[in-house]
Amino acid sequence: MKMFRHAMIWPLLAGLLLAGCTRDPVEFPHADGSLFELHVPPGWPEPPLRADNPLTVASVKLGKALFFDERLSLDRGISCASCHHPDRAFSDTVALSIGVHGGVGMRNSPSLANVAYHPLLMRDGGAPTLEQQVFIPIMDEAEMDADPQLVLESLRDDPVLTTMSMQAYGKPLDLYVLTRALANYQRTLLSGTSRYDRFLQGDATALDDAEVRGMQVFNGAAQCSVCHAGFDLSDHDFHNVGLALDHTADAGRQRVTLNPADRGKFKTPTLRNIALTAPYMHDGSMATLEETIEHFNSGGLADPNKDPLITPLQLSPDQKQDLASFLRSLTDERSLDVVE
């Protein structure tokens, strides 16, 4: 069966392909073990890194090279960066991304900001680790539609990548190296340098009056902070927000759990860099922040699985405008990509 995007075997398949995947400490003989220095924003916890994939300078640099390499789609014009643009907080610019065959994907490509902290990946939580998630876009027929072994054959003759692989993991490029390097590069994409963060750190001038009022709406009348909480502005949980009534095409979290109670639930996205990551929602159906705010203000559609927190808010026009202003203050003041 080739319809990979409709199959529910990704975590198991990736686990089988990742030979020797453990969380035990691993040393890579002959590799450069210099650790990559993550600049974690003040007050944030350290991300949960993996002992079996040390975050080294060499592995991160290799991962970045692979992230932008169209040979991951067998040189058919699609790289990871094709759907996760650095200048858009590593999200896409269209509702549904275009794959190697010109067709559209199943969901909107989310920002990769702070994925190092996410306990589950993908909008339905179908991938438990960044290492395993790598296989999904490569093998999905709507995205890269490639055989990982053929991808490796297209990369192994590259002397630059070979050298980088030896420096990072002490061996030539293989599936083990490919998945781990890509995962480590993504772990460096930390978002926490917005004007909002400066305000929280004591700079009272970082937000203007409208943005401060919007923050008060966010935490109060709009109840946004119930789900968009913490340093990542996400509870990393799954909710049905009343976006649609028919989930035949995409059941959301239910695709993974097979639990009818999860029908139409999707992972709460981070709101960091939200001004850069339009269009919004899992299907890219909302073009602007104002449209998205209006959806939540209305209470959404009467889906029987809708989260009880999603109710009409009755925000005034001024409150909605201030809330949009606050959300635009969540944009980082530096690039997420800090890898040279």
Q: Major beta sheet, specifics?
A: 2 strands, antiparallel
How many domains would you count in the coordinates? 2
CATH topology of the largest domain: Cytochrome Bc1 Complex, Chain D, domain 2
Overall average pLDDT:
93
**Superfamily at the CATH H level of the largest domain?**
Cytochrome c-like domain
Q: Specify the helix fraction band.
A: 25-40%
Characterization of the model:
The chain is mainly α and 340 residues long. It has 2 domains: 4-187, Cytochrome Bc1 Complex, Chain D, domain 2 (Orthogonal Bundle), CATH 1.10.760.10; 195-328, Cytochrome c-like domain (Cytochrome Bc1 Complex, Chain D, domain 2), CATH 1.10.760.10. Helix content is 30%, strand content 1%. The chain contains 12 helices and 2 strands. Helix 2 packs across helix 7 and helix 9 packs across helix 12. The radius of gyration is 20 Å and the shape is globular.
Please sum up the structure shown.
Helices cover 30% and strands 1% of the residues.
Give me the secondary-structure topology.
Layout: H1 10-17, H2 57-67, H3 130-133, H4 135-139, H5 148-155, H6 159-169, H7 175-187, H8 195-200, H9 209-219, E1 238-239, H10 254-257, E2 266-267, H11 289-298, H12 317-328
Describe the structure using short key phrases.
340 residues, mainly alpha, Cytochrome Bc1 Complex, Chain D, domain 2, 2 domains, two-stranded antiparallel sheet, 12 helices, 2 strands, 1% strand, disordered N terminus
